[in-house]
């Protein structure tokens, strides 16, 4: 292979360590431990594994977790009510709803029950628009992780042509918006795109977020392109045919060890950030009330 | 010229007539007249003209209007408070904040003071995400008008390559999202894009939304391309060099008479829709309360 690897593992470990330090500092200064609530609906083993992994990483970083597990037959109303309770609970700073949820649930309604200030996974409509408009808010963790990786490897984004393959609300769409906010020229491609390979061949940066194993082939790439594989398919296989792509690309993320660890790192970082912001808001309110009393 | 004109005037007149009929029906059935509140800050003559035009068209369609005019020195807080009052006022169904607002104002904060159910101009973060995700909500009027025009002229969108020039939050960005929702492949280009002409030459559909007179030239176009000129610059000039482009394009919007009238038509249509929805919600609440009383 000729491509250089973009390794997420190390960078993610640094981010998690730094989040852990901030968490520790918050506990020392205020007695508040950041807390991430995870919500899992049903008994899909892969989803259960993801949630457990996120809880374990949280614990290692000194972030508390609250685990909500609901039966597969949960209704939208029940899930919305449960998430609403977490949104209102001052001891919970961040909320992660593991997706996909069972088919009978209106996933969008469930996401929207997450208070924007606790949307540390970046799945709400408010979060999406904030990413698109450069307003304050939490980013979707995988797209946000991709941006950090590109920055860490000094990939020039301004004026670069980024082709995003896939347009899901939590991956493709926000990834494109974050790249656009970094002044890249962004093309959204998807299942209805004609001549996909030809379009990908014009890309300086390719983000594969389509959920199909080995979908992007080596001869789709411009020599020297930066290839970000956000796919994670059965058998630890990405959306990019790694062996072929690595012969052509300039930089490429491995699967696993590329985008995946960055996603979790960003989740933890944003949970700590949420806890800091909420704690600050509470102490400002208290100070304000004390002012009024004196 | 070889291109066929995409005339907005006629289609817009039909839409306004239909909105007028719905407004009349609402008055007859419920006594409620749809009402659009316009908010103008400062004394920019062009903005004042736009607002007056929108009020006149509203009146012709049987839509009432409420006019709020604020001094150029208005602060963000004052404007937000004023818009908040309109958001809470049950006699107001739609709110239009004429932009641009004076530089000292945080325009985003002002837009966000518009209740999503009254955001008939489609400028809120919620509205943008709704367009991107295909959720219920009002569309930005110019992008929404462009889509209607493309549909009226039977332009195939699925799989077509649409290149959007410009990325403003109320024009370029939502136009791209609406085209993407219609299964087009969408490329966002802007001031930092390299080789813009080459990219535009790959487009089946070009949306020019950059605000620079005669910016898009004829030799940037693929023969037969559909050219949407959303620009409106001094002297009634669009963003596209019309004479050159009309020699190459298959379909092209004139300026004026193309996108412009569609924008206002959609504003009126959405105002009536908002009035219908709000009136329906009120009567459902009343029915519910009567149920409880009986």
UniProtKB/TrEMBL annotation, chains A, B:
Pfam families: THF_DHG_CYH, THF_DHG_CYH_C. Residues 140-278 form the Tetrahydrofolate dehydrogenase/cyclohydrolase NAD(P)-binding domain. Residues 8-121 form the Tetrahydrofolate dehydrogenase/cyclohydrolase catalytic domain. Coiled coil: none annotated. InterPro entries: Aminoacid_DH-like_N_sf (IPR046346), NAD(P)-bd_dom_sf (IPR036291), THF_DH/CycHdrlase (IPR000672), THF_DH/CycHdrlase_cat_dom (IPR020630), THF_DH/CycHdrlase_CS (IPR020867), THF_DH/CycHdrlase_NAD-bd_dom (IPR020631). It comes from the Bacteria. It catalyses: (6R)-5,10-methylene-5,6,7,8-tetrahydrofolate + NADP(+) = (6R)-5,10-methenyltetrahydrofolate + NADPH; (6R)-5,10-methenyltetrahydrofolate + H2O = (6R)-10-formyltetrahydrofolate + H(+). NADP(+) binds at residues 166-168. The keyword Hydrolase applies. The keyword 4Fe-4S does not apply. Keywords: Amino-acid biosynthesis, Histidine biosynthesis, Hydrolase, Methionine biosynthesis, Multifunctional enzyme, NADP, One-carbon metabolism, Oxidoreductase, Purine biosynthesis. Pathway: One-carbon metabolism; tetrahydrofolate interconversion. PROSITE patterns: THF_DHG_CYH_2. Its EC number is 1.5.1.5, 3.5.4.9. Belongs to the tetrahydrofolate dehydrogenase/cyclohydrolase family. Homodimer. Catalyzes the oxidation of 5,10-methylenetetrahydrofolate to 5,10-methenyltetrahydrofolate and then the hydrolysis of 5,10-methenyltetrahydrofolate to 10-formyltetrahydrofolate. This is Bifunctional protein FolD. It comes from Kribbella koreensis. The gene is folD.
